[in-house]
Model the fold of this input.
Amino acid sequence: MKALEGCKHIIHGGDVGAPEILEQLATLAPLTAIRGNIDTQPWARKLPETEVIEIGGITIYVLHNLADLDLKPEAAGFHVVISGHSHIPKQETRGGVLYFNPGSAGPRRFKLPISMGRLTVKAGNVFGEIITISA
Done:
């Protein structure tokens, strides 16, 4: 939670796990969250499978599993695609679009680091950063 202080907007890429997590995050900043494959309880049904957000002139497409991407982000005008399913922290730019997976800030998944991501929007540009909480 400390690493999120000062955020202007929080985006959760799914696999929330419990509604209390969303309640806590929403106390820090406006929150956009989508449903992940482990979010099967009745409370999670209200979460969308995908979401589109515009922040500072940057359009962000959020979906849980990148393999489910059924559009061309560059053709649709998206600047960023955020996903989460693999829990592998990674960012790469393809076709002018930043593909960003912040990893998992919750319980350790597999042998992956516990991490989160930060996007910074400045002057119409977006920059990604992976923040390792625990290696």
Q: What stands out?
A: The domain at 2-134 is CATH 3.60.21.10 (Purple Acid Phosphatase; chain A, domain 2).
